[in-house]
Amino acid sequence: MPKMKTKKGAAKRFKVRGSGSIKRSQAFKRHILTKKSPDRKRRLRGMVEVHPSDMGLVKQMLPYA
C-alpha cells in the first residue's frame, strides 16, 4: 500500500504534544493591530489547544502525528 500523505498546510499550523493533544496559534493577530487594544493583543499571544470538535479533522490531516 502507498503511504498516506500529510496535508502540508496543516503540518505547518499544528503541533502534536506528547500527551496527544494538538496545539495551534491564535488567530486575529497578523495585521490591523492598531485598533486592537493591548489587552486583547496580549490575550492572543501564545498557543492554545485545538477544540475537541475539530480534533478529528485535524487528525485526518496529520495521519502520522
Lay out the secondary structure.
Blueprint: H1 8-13, E1 14-16, E2 22-25, H2 38-43, E3 47-49, H3 52-61
Antiparallel strand pairs: 1-2, 2-3
Give your account of this protein's structure.
This protein has helices at 8-13, 38-43, 52-61, and strands spanning 14-16, 22-25, 47-49. It has one domain (8-61): Irregular (Factor Xa Inhibitor), CATH 4.10.410. The protein is an alpha+beta fold and 65 residues long. The model has no long low-confidence stretch (mean pLDDT 96). It has a three-stranded antiparallel beta sheet.
Strand content: 15-25%
CATH class: Few Secondary Structures
Widest beta sheet: strand line-up: 1-2-3
Which geometry do the CA atoms define? Answer: elongated
Round the mean pLDDT to the nearest integer and report it.
96
Number of helices: 3
| Counted beta strands | 3
**Can you summarize the main beta sheet?**
3 strands, antiparallel
CATH fold topology: Factor Xa Inhibitor
Rg result? 15 Å
Biased composition (Basic residues): 1-16
GO molecular function, one term: structural constituent of ribosome
Family: Belongs to the bacterial ribosomal protein bL35 family.
Region (Disordered): 1-25
